[in-house]
TrEMBL record:
All residue ranges annotated as the CTP synthase N-terminal domain in the record: 2-66, 67-163
GO molecular function: CTP synthase activity; identical protein binding
Record-linked SUPFAM superfamilies: P-loop containing nucleoside triphosphate hydrolases
Origin organism lineage: Eukaryota, Viridiplantae, Streptophyta, Embryophyta, Tracheophyta
BP-aspect Gene Ontology terms: CTP biosynthetic process; pyrimidine nucleobase biosynthetic process
The name this protein goes by in its record: Ctp synthase-like protein
């Protein structure tokens, strides 16, 4: 399976969702089977109870469990402290791989391409575990199977001609 990750920088609300949907539609028009995952970088167990004013739209799928918390409660970590790396980042990668392989078009088998939209903006502290996990995931699936699309506001300040904000939003992605 191929994966396309859509991220955003500088400010939220730039159109990552439209970009991800458009990429999916173009790939589907080329005859590929496409699925999509939307990841919002928060750790709440139930997105349905979050403030829509603070968070924006809430779209909850049937499979909305917190796998890291479930694993800890079952004793899978054998009394160890649950750590962001590797426990949470590994759980995020496993979840992405599992969900990406669920057929969504009524046909047997996984899709050809999974378009992943990472909500929020790169550089937000809430995004860090997800960026780390997706960086590891790109190595896990291989460079030939992973593509990154970064959507960013590029204000051009006529006085100095710089685009520093957009450049700064890309630095955390360089590790991917």
């Amino acid at each position: 399976m191929k994966y396309v990750l859509v991220t955003g920088g500088v400010v939220s609300g730039l159109g990552k969702g439209i970009t991800a949907s458009s990429i999916g539609l173009l790939l589907k028009a080329c005859g590929l089977r496409v699925t999509a995952i939307k990841i919002d970088p928060y750790l709440n167990t139930d997105a349905g109870t979050m403030s829509p004013i603070e968070h924006g739209e809430v779209y909850v799928l049937d499979d909305g469990g917190e796998s890291v918390i479930d694993k800890e409660r079952r004793g899978d970590y054998l009394g160890k402290t649950v750590q962001v790396v590797p426990h949470i980042t590994d759980a995020i990668q496993d979840w992405i791989e599992r969900v990406a392989h669920i057929p969504v078009d009524g046909k047997e088998g996984p899709a050809d391409v999974c378009v992943i939209e990472l909500g929020g903006t790169i550089g937000d502290i809430e995004s860090m575990p997800f960026i780390q996990a997706l960086g590891h995931f790109s190595y896990r699936v291989g460079a030939n199977n992973f593509c990154l699309v970064h959507v960013s506001l590029v204000p051009v300040l006529n006085v100095v001609g710089e685009q520093v904000m957009s450049l700064n939003s890309k630095w955390p992605l360089r590790s991917m």
